[in-house]
Please model this.
Amino acid sequence: MATSDHIGAPRLTQRVRRSVWFRGLAGVVAFLCLAELLGRIGVISKALPLMSTVLGQAFGLLGNTQFLADAAATLGAWAAGLAITVAAGVPLGLILGSVPVVRSATRAIVEFLRPIPAVALIPLAALVLGPGQRMNITLVVYASIWPVLFNTIYGLDDVDPLAIQTLRAFGFGRLAVIRRVSLPAAAPFIATGIRVASSIATRVRAVGRSPRSAESPARRRASSSLFFTKRRAG
Model:
């Protein structure tokens, strides 16, 4: 009986996951169909293209080499920025969360920098770093490091003090306590911070383009007219 229950549990989990994915897909399809219907009966302004036109042109972009190159550059900057964010944010969070003196000494600087939006730093970043991937990655790291940093600190604050004291009573040092207790206990908080940081990195990379003055005339024309041309063609 126990064996059958053990075998049936994974199957039940798989069915639940498939059901969740199916409901999510059904919701997306229903939304697209509703948008198409509202556009055809005139509820949505004629200034906006129909959903079928948008989807058709979106699939057509898959054959556009310029679009694919820009998409690859965007994804590359996003991935590099997120990787640097995790590599820097987690260790910094561990240090600030584990060493109260360092946390107190850096509190003013962190709280001063944290509210500044990355978009507001685009002109300064372009002036200091110059347009290109280096500027884009820097903006992504700056914007997305805060959720990882603070979630790591919050995760360390949530660690059971008794577990830490027990390991210290057995002679384990600070690094061993962090590796054996603090980091595993803070892992769910860190994962949440990384998930939030990934969405922030996507938004920042989407708006953090190089200044138009630094782009070539051909690239400016392509960037400006891409969607308008597609819409007129539809």
